[in-house]
Input
Amino acid sequence: MKPYRIVLADDHVLLRQGLKKILEKTADLEVVGEAGNGIELLHLLRKLNSHMVILDISMPNMRGIEALHEIKTIRSDLKILILTMHKDKEYLHHAISAGANGYLLKEDADTELFSAIETVRQGKIYLSPYFTSDLADEWAKIHRGESKPFSEPDQLTTREKQILKLIAEGKSSKEIADLLCISVRTAEHHRANIMNKLNLKKIADLVKYALKKGYV
Output
């Protein structure tokens, strides 16, 4: 029986190394690649033949949710298990809406990791125990109009969010172009589009927006 091939994406090297050791103790699981950020992950997935990505939400250059959209474009069949510290239901909602097959909290990983992998592997949706107790009630309240729905993602594209994050980090158009392998002109065009979409006039306002949205 061929092993089930997994790619790990998390900016913490020690966490990736620990996960790899744990996973490869199981005979039918194999870690075939590791990435420290979203852009690196996308490059990796174009080269590797894998079944699943275990993906963190908080990563540099391209965050997990943004990477998720891109992954599904590259490999719609690939299973995605989010492994995160974020307990906010908005993160969960956006992850599942973007195509994630599972959402596992890092605090539950010691007892739930293999269960989460197996559930997703079988084509089902996995949620950490932290959510399962009250999530159904929460969504029922939303349906009945007793609670506000989760906020929708903003109107920026994945690429625009990526560039906005880099702008907020103080990167110049040339630096952004080099990082994303695009022309300076394209980077500046994206910058102008972002400002027009958000109706903002100053870079300082862009930075404030990025901070508010949690891009930085």
In short: The beta strands are 4-9, 29-35, 52-55, 79-84, 102-105, 126-127.
